[in-house]
Amino acid sequence: MSQLSVPKDNVLRAKTRNKNKPKFKRNKNQVQNQITQLPETPYLEISPETDEPQSFDPFAEAEEVDLKQAKQIHVRAQQTQVRAKIGKDGKRKPHWVTTIQGLPEKFEKKKIVQHFKKALACAGNIVADETWGEVIQLQGDYRDVFFKFLTGKPGLELSESVVMVHG
Q1: What pLDDT, on a 0 to 100 scale, did the predictor assign at position 44?
Q2: N or C: which end of the chain has fewer CB within 10 A?
Q3: Which residues form the SUI1 domain (predicted)?
Q4: Does this model's pTM top 0.70?
Q5: DSSP helix/strand/coil, 19
Q6: In this structure, how many other beta carbons lie within 10 angstroms of the beta carbon of residue 1?
Q7: CB–CB of 151/161 below 8 Å?
Q8: In the chain, where are the structural domains located?
Q9: Residues 73-87: b if buried by 16+ CB within 10 A, e if exposed
């Protein structure tokens, strides 16, 4: 009486599990044959003189592009790690910082910051960045206000395709 009885359900389940598995196995020779039959890559060319593969550069014929002309202005609002303020209604209000990157050097950033500090009653400064140059930072989420200033008639009158608002 040392034998354990196995319910019939478990035996049937075990038999159905094996039906789903593939019935064939690949050996190493079949795998190697498939690898050798791969199509040739178009990026390697063998020259008839040297019989060595030479790399193909698809961008060799491309012309240089003037990046200053295609430069975009990025307007972002970032949530900072500062403790959130609690409003009068008891809800938490996170702290936001709006950053403006890629503004051309022909505009005086200091005057723009002074204008927004007075108009929006917020703090703002100019931060030096390695990749973007001088970046304007304003406290608060003012993406739409700054977009209207950059593209609007009383503002800088830039085209909307140059200004990119994130978020």
Answers
A1: 54
A2: N
A3: 84-154
A4: no
A5: helix
A6: 3
A7: no
A8: 73-165
A9: bebebeeeeeeeeee
